[in-house]
Amino acid sequence: MPELRKDPVTERWVIIATERGKRPYDASEIAHSWAENDHCPFCAGHEHLTPSEIAAIRDPSSKPNGPGWQVRVVPNKFPALGIDTPLAKQGTGMYDRMTGFGAHEVIIECPDHTQTLHKLPIENIKNVLAVSQNRIEDLQKDTRFRYVLLFRNDGPQAGATIAHPHSQIIATPITPKRVKEELRGAETYFKLKERCVFCDIIDEEKRIGERIVYENEHFVSFCPYWSRFPFEIWLLPKKHELNFYSSRAHLFEMALALKTTMEKLSQVLNNPQYNYIVHSGPNMFARRGYWQTIQDDYHWHFEIIPRLTKVAGFEWGTGFYINPTPPEDAAKYLREANVFV
Amino acid sequence: MPELRKDPVTERWVIIATERGKRPYDASEIAHSWAENDHCPFCAGHEHLTPSEIAAIRDPSSKPNGPGWQVRVVPNKFPALGIDTPLAKQGTGMYDRMTGFGAHEVIIECPDHTQTLHKLPIENIKNVLAVSQNRIEDLQKDTRFRYVLLFRNDGPQAGATIAHPHSQIIATPITPKRVKEELRGAETYFKLKERCVFCDIIDEEKRIGERIVYENEHFVSFCPYWSRFPFEIWLLPKKHELNFYSSRAHLFEMALALKTTMEKLSQVLNNPQYNYIVHSGPNMFARRGYWQTIQDDYHWHFEIIPRLTKVAGFEWGTGFYINPTPPEDAAKYLREANVFV
């Protein structure tokens, strides 16, 4: 099983897949796994190629692990972290490690290999989002998990190894570094202002207007003032909500905002490869005391990143990003793109 | 000129190139600039294609900005940050920004377009390192700079836009986030143990042995216990040294260690594209009070990262890395590679 190891200087954790030590790195292995339709484990009719399903939206007359589904959630066959590993923290010489305990699930978004998430009808996108919300909420019941991340890799440059539309969920036994930075930043801001920093950002962006991409009654998307990447987009609920699954009342507007925003991005950049991540609140059931006040401070959001630039030495060495496209320009192109949703 | 903008949540700074707002992102522009030999601005005889040189190692009979050089340092023609911009900090609505003040220099490592840094004779590598040390030391005299980073992008996947062997230096008016994390981590460790964390890591790696790649009297390279990437390698002076330019006494051993390590990497992974960065101490002349104690805590080092895996949604969303190659395996292959230096 994989193990977690801690950088003794910066306290960053790394997942080391200790069991996979093959003769030097074989890139062809990944290229190969970009499976064609007829070998794709996520296609309808190939349900036997995945582990047993955890959840699904399917025809009432159909059976689990057979065809007849619209959305299907299965454990990742090659998990980064394993649910069967007991959670244990150990020292080794001067270093710290942890067993590779965690959960890694795949949300297969539609039966059709050649589809694209944002081309699906709104009703189907709603279902994908609803199933994802349920999985996150369910995983948070396990208090060994400190955090649950939903993310989507679209295209090989974005790290996807399978073309069939899918997103992923990873639940981790520690709060990840970047999430902790956001939580702490939001907490600091709240202490100073007694307001949520994300709520303030939404107000500011609406006031300025020039970085807004799309807006409906309950959701807004914009290119952040501090965009790290060209055409980076954030998508948030307008009303303060801690968790992704707190936003169940307005799922139609969420699906509409996601579909419209992604259609615009797709039109302006000609179907770019991209990642998105959903930063939801931390697991309040784990270490309840520590995050007890975060309810008012933190605000869940999508971060959408088209893969256009290469991260190079300067970015690795500093954590600075160089963005050649001002977000005001990116937002203008996206706002002006006419899409039919 | 570019400007710096601050993420109001995590306090990460981003360089936004506000003047370059072109119609959607043109990837061909970067591909195009992978200049062929006859248009390469870094080749001998093409000195008029770069801004005037800042430093050079050249034949005593040759003239600046003409042929006859072995190493040449010039300002970057398309700087991420500009030396002519006055440093000013401003608010804009709820956000913070800074003018894009800084320095961005290119170290042209040899006159020959088709060479590779680690294939150069040791004497030439020594000269490249010595010139880099001088530039960093010189830039730190400007107290407006908080940090000076040396880095190298090799190959288009590593973010290089010009094939001719070169490395780069960027001096920034703020201490970059990742550097600050290392400085703070080293400081915390020192407070607890009264020892440098990097010195302890070197001792521990020598004791264990299985992650060592190469070692000579004054330098050691190893795959860190917490390697974020397959075949990640760190290279450090064995004796405690704060700054890259503090290591002038053993430049031969440094060049030998770098050449041997890179030759091994090159042999095992068949000339991978890579980045390396040099993390040297912060600018002690700027904000002397704050970093006054860092002399004993921090230890300069190379971080060498071959570009084998794609950073995907999970890494962006969490700051966790998934490394499929245990550093013990990587180090074994590298240690066993026979290279003739």
Automatic annotation (TrEMBL), chains A, B:
Required co-factors: Fe cation; Zn(2+)
Pfam families: GalP_UDP_tr_C, GalP_UDP_transf
GO biological process terms held by the UniProt record: galactose metabolic process
Domain Galactose-1-phosphate uridyl transferase C-terminal, residue spans: 186-282
KW Hydrolase (keyword) present: no
Domain Galactose-1-phosphate uridyl transferase N-terminal: 3-176
The enzyme's E.C. designation: 2.7.7.12
Binding site residues for Zn(2+): 40, 43, 113, 164
GO terms for MF: UDP-glucose:hexose-1-phosphate uridylyltransferase activity; zinc ion binding
Binding locations of Fe cation: 182, 279, 299, 301
Key words, A-Z: Carbohydrate metabolism, Iron, Metal-binding, Nucleotidyltransferase, Transferase, Zinc
Cofactor detail note: Binds 1 Fe cation per subunit. Binds 1 zinc ion per subunit.
Active site, renumbered: 166
InterPro entries: ADP-glucose_phosphorylase, GalP_UDPtransf1, GalP_Utransf_C, GalP_Utransf_N, HIT-like_sf
PANTHER family: ADP-GLUCOSE PHOSPHORYLASE, UDP-GLUCOSE--HEXOSE-1-PHOSPHATE URIDYLYLTRANSFERASE
NCBIfam families per record: galT_1
Family statement drawn from the similarity comment of this UniProt entry: Belongs to the galactose-1-phosphate uridylyltransferase type 1 family.
Name of the protein in its database record: Galactose-1-phosphate uridylyltransferase
